[in-house]
Design a protein that fits this description.
It is a single chain. The chain has 8 helices and 14 strands. By secondary structure, it is of the alpha+beta class. It has 2 domains: 95 residues, Pdz3 Domain (Roll); 102 residues, Pdz3 Domain, CATH 2.30.42. Strands 1, 2, 3, 4, 5 and 8 form a 6-stranded antiparallel beta sheet that branches. The longest helix is centred in the C-terminal third of the chain and has 14 residues. The protein starts with a helix and ends in a 6-residue tail after the last strand.
């Protein structure tokens, strides 16, 4: 993920969304900013973030170091209720920079849903459908199969896909049943390719 976000750090937490008119929004924080530290304490995971923020009393200042692309920034937030700033409609708005599903780890790529903001940041057509490859390990199975950074998975076994979780579940099923998956993929040059993944290789 760090390659697509263009950040020079290997760990931290990514802001998935910023609630309008929240403390974070008013301070200038944006979606896809990567928080690196709070009050001098390095933040490696969402759990770290929660632990650190819970120790700061409402009304006190939290100094946050974050990256927006390769640029390092700092912002001082006067906290009101940190829990309200972390959720929107009950959903956590932060995610670990380096957490992968087991299937992504085995294949050597990282996937992301194409929401409106991600399309804007990456420069994709707003009507583009599919799931984006945002990271790929050198010499991995994914690279050997022909996947590349920035590829968009359009279909799996001829079924259009728009959610990462669908692909993860399809890979799980292929692994359990030792069957093959056919990926239809669009690359950065708008060319299409077909990639076959044999589920049996994931059990080796």
């Amino acid at each position: 993920m760090k390659e697509i976000l263009r950040v020079p750090i290997d760990s931290g937490i990514v802001i998935k969304n910023v609630t309008p008119n929240s403390t974070a929004d008013n301070s200038g924080l944006m979606s896809y900013d990567v928080i690196f530290s709070i009050n001098g304490n390095q933040v490696l995971t969402v759990t770290d973030f929660l632990s650190i923020m819970s120790q700061i009393n409402p009304g006190n200042i939290a100094t946050i170091i974050y990256f927006r692309g390769p640029e390092r920034n700092s912002v001082a937030l006067r906290l009101e209720n940190y829990q309200n700033a972390l959720t929107q409609n009950g959903e956590n708005i932060l995610s670990d920079l380096d957490v992968l599903s087991n299937q992504e780890l085995k294949i050597g790529f990282r996937l992301a849903d194409l929401d409106v903001e991600r399309k804007r940041v990456v420069g994709l057509d707003p009507y583009q459908k599919g799931v984006l490859l945002i990271d790929i390990e050198p010499y991995s199975l994914a690279e050997q199969l022909g996947f590349s950074l920035g590829d968009i998975i359009i279909e799996v076994d001829k079924i259009p896909v728009s959610q990462k979780q669908y692909i993860i579940e399809a890979i799980k099923d292929a692994q359990v049943s030792n069957t093959k998956l056919l990926f239809r993929v669009k690359n950065k040059d708008d060319d299409y390719k077909l990639i076959v993944l044999n589920g049996s290789v994931l059990t080796e």
